[in-house]
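note to self — DONT lose this again. spent like an hour looking for the file last time. sequence + predicted structure for the chain T wanted, 329 res
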Amino acid sequence: MNTLQKEFSRLELGEPAHFRGLTLLPLLREEPSAPEPDYLLLEEAIGLGVARVTELNGGTVPELRFENMADRPVLLLDGEELIGAKQNRVLNLTILAPARQSIVIPVSCVEAGRWNMTSPDFQPAEHLMYSRARAARSEQVTESMRTTGTRRSDQSAVWEEIAAKACRMEAASPTQAMSALFERHAISVEEFVRAFTWRERQAGVAFAVNGQPSGLDLFDHPSTMRCLFPKLVRSYALDALDASGARNEPADRAVFSELLARASTATTFAQPAVGLGKDVRLSGASLSGAALWAEDRYIHVCAFNADGDRSAGASLRTRMTRPSHRRSF
């Protein structure tokens, strides 16, 4: 298994873009680590009718059943929201589900006030869990893996985080659903989606809100990034809207360089994955995250700024060299 430092050293940093407090930095690959992805994305597989996500044994909050009927693996992404069945959930980590198999997948509930069947199957949402909640949940899952070998979040903490954000953003929901936050602010969130564009060779993206580093996602192939780009933007856009009272300034490139450096040198440990490969957990200087290593490459890496103060307006501003030059971290 390659080191994360080697993985990040292969990247080029693109030209940053900024809109209403959110700055994006494209992460470009000189060459994809695979000719084309040999897996389906979850939304694609469900749309083709070759995958299903259902309740497990009538319903258990932290686990669901995933059935892959395709003759290719299916990629399920950390933070991807699943809508329907007895209550909405999000995936606790990235999974490469084997072809023609059923597996149990670890999830967190993001709809505290419902436990009744609205549909037999789940459908993927058009967004991921917003980034601040992904960061906190990532830390919780890492701790769970260290101490008990399970992949569970602190469910009470997840509900409390969503409730607090819903209060701040005036997105009350009868069932306390995270999806209500995205529905309430859909028009504004889509403005962010229209403001940013996937770039050629872009396999990842790093985000900053009001000058403070927030997180990054990196994939094995640009085509995967292109498909998931709008979902990722929506995730971070919701946090940018939540922080809209703070100053609206672009992040310096050094903010991203520092985040990438911390991610590339993070302390890691690995366990056999739920599906194919190895689950790799990241922790370090004010950072949490995870990666999936499978089929001799990193399929997905995510990392989040975990400073004690994640509040709006905190900033980290230094200098950085031109993005056209390849960087080693």
